[in-house]
Amino acid sequence: MANTRSRATAADTFDNMRHSAYSLPHTAIADKALSPLTSAPMIDPQAFFESLADPIRRRILVMLLESDELCVCDLHDALDAPQPKVSRHLAVLRGANLVVARRDGAWMRYRIHPQLPAWALRILIHMKDGMGPDPLVAAASLCDPRAA
Fold it and tell me: Residue 99: how many CB atoms within 10 A of its CB?
């Protein structure tokens, strides 16, 4: 099958570079992350529901729904799970386009993808509501210099 994607112009490259810190790298955008007709991320329903199959990933998503942004150290402390395990689960969520990451010095900060389709966000909110009245809340940030 022939490649129907046109080459990126200098203006396209500039537009991609000026996106917020939560934007994906240009190559990821061009290859798979964004629909060619819209700026919303393409969500594969299979990957979306597979990412919800793990209890740790569900808890991460609930914490991110309740907080604007969390650092990996906040998540692994609240989940009482080793940092590599939490990072691996976050990689699955990033791969499914449910969360975005940004580097802040030595830390990686995660949040729910700001352009998540409405149907996916509704499912996450219903999942959070169904998890009961005792939501898992992260403590004050361990890596935020303003919290000290």
Answer: 24
Model confidence pLDDT, tens digit, residues 45-65: 999 999 999 999 999 999 999
% of the chain at pLDDT higher than 90: 51
Question: For the chain, how big is the Rg over CA atoms in Å?
Answer: 17
CATH class of 44-131: mainly alpha
Domain limits of the chain?
44-131
Taking CA atoms, 65 is separated from 36, 38, 72, 104, 143, in Å, by: 27, 24, 15, 20, 20
Q: In whole angstroms, what is the distance from residue 56 CA to residue 62 CA? A: 10
Q: Are 54 and 89 contacting, i.e. CB atoms less than 8 angstroms apart?
A: yes
End-to-end CA distance of the chain: 56
Enter the pTM of the model: 0.67
Residue with tokens 């802040």: 104
Would you report the helix, strand and coil content of the chain in percent, each value rounded to 5? 50, 10, 40
